[in-house]
Structures are given as C-alpha cells and as structure tokens.
Design a protein that fits this description.
Elements (H helix, E strand, L loop, with lengths): L2 H72 L2 H12 L29 H13 L2
Length: about 130
C-alpha cells in the first residue's frame, strides 16, 4: 500500500465526519429558529392589521360625526331655505333675483425673480438662520 492511500483512508473520513457534525446542528438550529419565529411574524402581521383597522375606525367615527352635524343642520328651516336659494336658485314669490356679472381683470405680470447660484442661496440661508 502506498502512503497516500493510507493517508486518504485514515484522515479523509475524519474530515467528512467533522463537516457532517457541523452541518446537522446548523440545519437543526435553523429549522428550530424558523419554527419558533413563525408565531412572532404572525404577531407582527396581526399588530399591523390592528393598527390599520384602528385608523379605519377613527376615519369612520369622524365621518359619522360629520354626517350627524349635516343631519342637525338639515332639520333647521333656515338652512333648508339657504340651500334651496344657493344650490337650486329658488326665490320666494314676489322676489326678483339679480345676477351680478363681474368682468375679468387681467393682473399685472409679476417681474421674474432673479436666479441665484447655489452659493448665494447658501449664504442667504446662513444669514437668515444665524441673524439675531
């Protein structure tokens, strides 16, 4: 028998056995970690869903309050009359409705602002920030 063959037979299985001993606990540890972290991930998902639902509830409560306010306004005859006049253009018998037409006035053109370089902007920012 040659030396290399003896060497390979004696030492090589030992090396494979050591790597096998390292891989098995690593696989077991990884599987255990994933198995134990699943409830935590579910809890995080549920908390996110809970916060979204709380936000939706808050928005719905706000909308309900606005609708209640509108209902109380619509029960008043003065508000009904105001809405009829404003939205529907209704008038009481004997009244004459006038429309005022305004002529559009063109405004003066504003002068263009001077473009500033980056160092002028920085200097202006520093002057405003640190001025007393």
């Amino acid at each position: 028998m040659s030396r290399t063959r003896v060497y390979n037979n004696i030492f090589k299985p030992n090396i494979q056995l050591k790597t096998g001993r390292l891989i098995i606990p690593l696989v077991v540890f990884t599987a255990a970690f994933l198995w134990m972290s699943a409830p935590t991930l579910k809890l995080i998902r549920e908390r996110r869903l809970n916060s979204n639902l709380k936000l939706q509830l808050q928005n719905q409560l706000l909308e309900n309050n606005n609708l209640k306010s509108d209902i109380s306004k619509l029960k008043k005859p003065s508000y009904i009359e105001l809405k009829a006049r404003k939205d529907l253009g209704l008038v009481k018998p004997g009244e004459i409705q006038y429309y005022v037409l305004m002529k559009k006035v063109k405004g003066k053109a504003r002068p263009k602002a001077k473009r500033m370089s980056w160092w002028q902007k920085t200097l202006g920012f520093l002057e405003v920030t640190f001025a007393k």
